[in-house]
Design goal:
With about 375 residues, the protein is of the alpha/beta class. It contains 7 helices and 17 strands. The termini are far apart.
Length: about 375
């Protein structure tokens, strides 16, 4: 049996992960990562979730660790989030948090504890020799629901990342930035289950988090008010300017371009009589540009800060891409470039392609890798 450190968040998914690994005979320890930011007491990383995580560990009789990452979290995640917004990009902090915090800081603790694997409650699948062995022990004790189909992945020795079996919960998009060498030490036991089945298991196992609702917000912005956070962190920054149409016609003013994101239709601050969308944000001039839906079409864009979970492609290849967590996959042609970036040409033009978000490349269910979107070459 394996020695496994489980990242506990205080929610139902990580609670079930801990329970099914422990009751499948593995040597399990739990850790909760907290950032201690004011106003976030009831979010992941806050005191309420930390206490729920402790209760689960106590119930399951697993050693429990507390990892305070406040300084690193503020510097690497919160400051990154703010700085991205004020240069006109729309960041996804969870994608950055995963490799730096969850599979960075917590993996360091796993090393200190002599744990072979780090497990989380993410809905994605990893194929690796270690994952196969652990998963076999779990699925034999806690099979998926009768109506759930577990797609088979051909075994290989090289670790690979795949979509989760539940398409409504698949989190593979947000995991593309995990360093490839770490995949062989990461376990995603829930990737073969549906969310419905996990709720059932939580109730069967009498876990205190069985009925706990899911968090929908960014953990350090629990009220969803990004503008307030930016104002608190960068009080000297203004960002106000003009709202214009694609032909340059000025139609209004705004209080800060960071309050807008590409593709936004509601809350534009102007009434134009017909539907308009944010099609571009110019941080240099603090201008928000509005246009018709067809103006969102993006036949070509680029990505940098690439992370590959396969051998880095050296020539043009075809794949499917996602440009947002909830976006639908679309066929695309990807061209690696000499400067370490990629050029992406969707077969059907993507709308609302947003700088700062990620483009993730798939081949079927397998995650090939991805990078962060920019519109300029």
């Amino acid at each position: 049996m394996a020695r496994i450190l489980v990242a506990l968040s205080g929610g139902v998914d990580s609670s079930v992960t801990t329970a099914i690994l422990k009751r499948s005979g593995h040597e399990v320890q739990g850790v909760v990562m907290t950032h201690g930011l004011s106003g976030c007491e009831e979010t992941c990383g806050g005191t309420v979730d930390s206490e729920d995580a402790r209760k689960v560990a106590e119930l399951l009789d697993v050693p429990f660790h507390h990892l305070d990452v406040k300084d690193a979290f503020e510097a690497e995640i919160v400051d990154y989030f703010v700085e991205q917004y004020i240069v006109g990009r729309t960041p996804n902090p969870c994608i950055v948090c995963n490799p730096r915090m969850k599979f960075g800081q917590i993996m360091n603790l796993a090393d200190q504890l002599g744990a072979e694997y780090l497990a989380t409650g993410h809905y994605a699948r990893i194929e690796s020799p270690g994952e196969r062995e652990v998963l076999a022990s779990v699925l034999s004790q806690f099979p998926p629901g009768e109506s759930d189909e577990v797609a088979q992945i051909p075994p290989e020795d090289t670790p690979r990342l795949f979509r989760g079996s539940d398409p409504t919960k698949d989190q593979s998009y947000a995991l593309f930035a995990i360093p490839w060498p770490l995949l062989g030490r990461i376990l995603f036991p829930l990737g073969h289950y549906t969310k419905r089945r996990i709720r059932e298991l939580a109730a069967e196992l009498d876990l205190p988090t069985a009925d706990k609702p899911e968090s929908q917000d960014i953990c350090f912005v629990p009220d969803g008010n990004y503008a307030r956070l930016i104002g608190e962190r960068r009080p000297e920054f203004d960002g106000s300017g003009e709202i214009v149409l694609t032909d340059g016609t000025v139609v209004g003013r705004h209080d800060g371009f960071y309050r807008y994101t590409i593709g936004q239709r509601k809350g534009l601050g102007v009434a134009l009589g017909t539907p308009h969308y944010v099609v571009r944000i110019d941080a240099d001039t603090c201008t928000v540009v509005l246009g018709a839906e067809e103006d969102l079409a993006c036949p070509r864009f680029y990505a940098d800060q690439l992370n590959w979970l396969v051998d880095p492609p050296a020539s043009v290849f075809d794949c499917q891409i996602k440009v947002r967590y909830r976006s639908r996959p679309t066929d695309a042609r990807v061209t690696p470039r000499a400067d370490g970036t990629i050029e992406v040409e969707p077969v059907a033009s993507c709308g609302a392609v947003t700088p700062g978000q990620a483009v993730v490349c798939y081949r079927g269910d397998q995650v090939l890798g991805g990078g962060f979107i920019r519109l300029d070459g």
